[in-house]
Structure formats: structure tokens, C-alpha cells
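Check my protein:
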Amino acid sequence: MASTSDIRKGLCIKYSNDIFKIVEFLHVKPGKGPAFVRTKLKSVTTGKVIDNTFSAGHKIDEIRVETNKYQYLYSEGEDFNFMNVDDYNQIVVNINSIDNPGLMKEGEIVSISINTEDGLPLSVDMPASVVLEVTHTEPGVKGNTATNATKPATVETGAKINVPLFINEGDKIKVDTAKGSYQERIKE
């Protein structure tokens, strides 16, 4: 059993008959009254995100997890297939356990947390950013350069991302996987 002082981002806990991963947390010490921890929890089974507040010293059921590096192979409908880069074992992960599945391209290396009690995958953590090629976007119009103007673009994985007007088809861009947003153009 752990307590609220052990709460950290990425911790998996049992809460209300489900397993949740802590996405965000904030320790709050008000001037009046007891301290508490405000959290944002994501269900690893349904993908639903809930807000919850734990009082200071509250006991939580921590889930023991093991994290390994896996390579993304391919997807079949709602299921994504991965291969362990150390022992080449393959596992299947449901789309609900992946934060931004539209940004994952074949061959991508990710970290997968697995419940040590039953061997089931809990969550897939992608790198902070990925480099993707723009496959379709409208050409930018010369002179149309308002500050922070963007246009929609489709990348090689099929995801749609808003990009600046100067980005063209064939350009490689760096995408933030947490927000699914454009970061910068990659020059070759």
C-alpha cells in the first residue's frame, strides 16, 4: 500500500474496481484545512479520463508494473501489434491504451508498461516527439502570412495536424505526441 505522498506521473493504481494511470497531479496545501492531492486519472481499460481528489495520507493500491521497449509492427482494427526489442516476443495492445495512436508509424520504438500480476499491457508511452512526412496539404499562398496562421495537413500515418503555411507536401515535420501538435520543420 502506498499513500498520497507516493503519487507521481505515470503511476498505475487500483481505484473503484478499475486500473488507472496518473496523468497529472498537484499537491495542494491550503492555508486553512488539510492538504490534498488533485489528480487526473486515465483508465487503462476504457481510456476515460477522470478528475479525483485524494486527502493527504490517503492509502492507494499501487500496481506493480514492468516497462520494456517495444517496436510497433502493424495494426489490425482496434488492436496494435508490438515486438519486444530484447526477446522478440510479440504482444497485442488495444487502441484505448495508446494516447495518440494516429501518430505511430511502423518501426517506432515505444515503452509499454505491463502489469506484473497478470501480464496484461497497461499503457503505451510514445517518445516525446516523432518525425513524420507530410503527404497532403494545400499549397501556401504567397503574401498570406498572418501571424500564427495554420492550415490542415495529413501526415504519413493518416493523422491530421495543423501546420504553418510554409509547410508543403514532402516536408518532414516534428510532432509533439502528447498534444498532437506541430513543433518544427526538419531540414535534411
